[in-house]
Amino acid sequence: MHDSMTGPCAAGHPLVHIAGLGKTYAGADGLPVQALDGIDLSIGRGQFTCVVGPSGCGKSTLLRILAGVMPAGSGTIEIAGRRLDGPSRDVGVVFQSPVLLPWRNILSNVMVPAEVQKLPADDARARARDLLDMVGLSDFAHRYPGELSGGMQQRVGLCRALVHNPSLLLMDEPFGALDAMTRETMNLELLRIWHEKDATVLLITHSIPEAVFLADQVVVMAARPGRIVANYPIDLPRPRRLDMFSTPAFGAHVRRIRSHFNSRGEID
Amino acid sequence: MATPRALTAVFSSPRALSPVVLLVLLAAWEGAVRALHVPAIVLPAPSAVVQALWLEIRSGTLWPHFLVTCEEILAGFGIGAIVGIGLGVLIGQSRFLEQVFYPYLVAAQTIPKVAIAPILVIWLGYGLSSKIVITATIAFFPALSNTIVGLQATPREQMEMLRACTATQWQIFCMARFPQALPYIFAGLDVAAVLSVIGAIVGEFVGARAGLGYLILQMNFSFDMAGVFSILLVLCLIGICLHLAVGLVRRRVLFWTAGQADPLPGL
Ligand SMILES: Nc1ncnc2c1ncn2[C@@H]1O[C@H](COP(=O)(O)OP(=O)(O)OP(=O)(O)O)[C@@H](O)[C@H]1O
Ligand SMILES: [Mg+2]
Questions:
Q1: Is the Cα dihedral B29, B34, B39, B45 positive or negative?
Q2: End-to-end CA distance of chain B
């Protein structure tokens, strides 16, 4: 699948359509691990979707299948009306760990997707520099990953996912290693990029307030087997501002989603 | 006089202590040979070895043999390394090819090279080429096996990251698998470099008209023990120089592993 996802498309047709998706891993002890079971999910074009759920409930598995780097076990996935059959040029992925190449400096790590897709090097480099500037790492363009903290590496991973200007963004806890302040700044920047580009975003997070702040819909997952237990539309007005965190409507959304988790952070 | 503080410093640092140990051993050797009147034909004193080496250098007998052996070592090492890495890259492309070919390569490796050296001398003659081939067959295997292992060492996450942005197998090889294999390849080259010295000497022992191995045999026939030991010293120095050279290139190429453990630290 190498064509763009921004072509004409029947109105109201979702960009991503997942039906009955299941995935079972062969565990190291030979016992099967059912990571996903009966996942149904639609993501509209230009929609911002957040996924929350306890550790081990299959969030990363879902994201890796959507990225086309792991085959689905059962069910169907359609992206832009076509059956998913592998990675796509028009998708940007932020993995849960930064996965930088230690022998490339930061700038050329960000450039990896552009190089792979043979995009014009000068444009891509300019864009990579802009992105590094946006995440506050322009002074580190010529340093190496080993010299950066975990949170800095994660921001580089974000730039790399954006450098080829994809219209679908898959992000696995992209801000997990960041402090609260940087995280808020990153959230705002992400919303700005999403809005400018009219991109579609699927973002996994452990933070319910973050999910509510960013999303149009919040998907709640539960473990063993990994499944979707709820899907909340978030109707807070856009553009979102940081002072919304303290509004009653925001609090009500957060409480409703949190009610799925018991005191140990698991789903009852 | 060394103060107690300086002595403590020497004894707590391996780099400082190591040459001290060497000097103590040499002194003990020298002292024992002199005190016990060991005949030079049995065991020469270190001073006699150094003196013999000095005479060989002064008279010019050492130099042509030294050059011959260096040529054999370098050419054999180079060929073995290039063929080993090249074949390793081919076989390391897939677990499938590895499983098909690797057992035979291991089987070939178990043949003692000393045993095939006479055959190679018959095939290729008494000149340089038989020694170069023997050296290359010895240097080949560590380069090959480490390349294969290194190419399988790329973390799954890196492969997935590259595949997610539609990288081809070739792009994944160039961008991740080969650089990831380089530390393993250099560790293999380090072993290969030291083994090359053995290869060249084995070849010369079997049949040669020149070289340090040939010189050792000549000196053995004339019971020149100090001479034999002096050549061993030269061979040792060649091996150390090769090891240092590989380490130097390694540190330049693998700049991102600075501070990580060296396979053979200390040198
Ligand atoms: N490669 C694998 N082989 C076998 N089992 C796996 C593999 N990857 C994940 N699993 C299992 O699948 C389940 C879901 O894993 P996944 O990584 O998708 O969880 P997650 O929701 O992303 O968790 P976290 O929030 O901790 O990142 C877990 O039970 C895990 O043990
Ligand atoms: Mg995960």
A1: positive
A2: 28
pLDDT tens string A170-203: 999 998 888 888 889 889 989 988 988 889 999 9
Domain encompassing residue B168: 63-254
Cβ atoms of A15 and A7 within 8 Å: the answer is no
Question: Domain total for chain B?
Answer: 1
Provide the chain A residues 221-260 that lie in CB contact (below 8 A) with chain B. none
For residue B161, what are its two tokens?
A: 């990251």
Residue A145 belongs to what domain range? 101-164
Residue B33 inside a domain? The answer is no
Domain CATH code at residue B123: 1.10.3720.10
Number of domains in chain A: 1
Does a structural domain hold residue A193?
A: no
Q: What is the rounded distance in angstroms from the CA atom of residue A236 to the CA atom of residue A217?
A: 11
Which chain B residue has its CA at the smallest distance from A104's CA?
B256
Residue A120 lies in a domain: yes
B contacts of A101 (beta carbons < 8 Å): 158, 175-176, 179
Alpha-helical segments (H) within chain A: 59-66, 106-110, 112-116, 121-134, 150-162, 180-197, 208-214, 248-258
Question: In this structure, is residue A219 part of a structural domain?
Answer: no
Q: Residue A130 falls within a domain, yes or no? A: yes
Arithmetic mean of pLDDT, A37-55: 94
Say if B49 falls within a structural domain: no
For chain B, give the number of residues: 267
Per-residue pLDDT tens for B177-197?
A: 999 999 999 999 999 999 999
pTM for the full model?
0.85
Ligand having the closest approach to the CA of A56: 1
Nearest CA to ligand 1 atom 9: A61
Q: Where are the beta strands (DSSP E) in B64-222?
A: none
Helices (H) and strands (E) in chain A, counts: 8, 10
Report the C-alpha gap between A69 and A71 in whole angstroms: 7
For the stretch A64-123, pLDDT in tens is 999 999 999 999 999 988 899 999 999 999 999 999 999 999 999 999 999 999 999 999
Nearest CA among A3, A223, A183, A14 for reference residue A91: A3
Chain B residues touching A91 at Cβ < 8 A: 164
Instruction: Among A59, A172, A221, name the best residue to mutate to test ligand 1's pocket (greatest count of ligand atoms within 8 A of Cβ).
Output: A59
Q: Which residues of B118-155 are buried (b: 16+ CB within 10 A; e: fewer)?
A: eebbeebebebbbbbbbbbbbbbbbbbbbbbbbbeebe
On whether residue B44 sits in a domain, the answer given is no
Residue B267: inside a domain: no
Map residue B253 onto helix, strand or coil: helix
Helix, strand, coil share (%) of chain A residues, nearest 5? 35, 25, 40
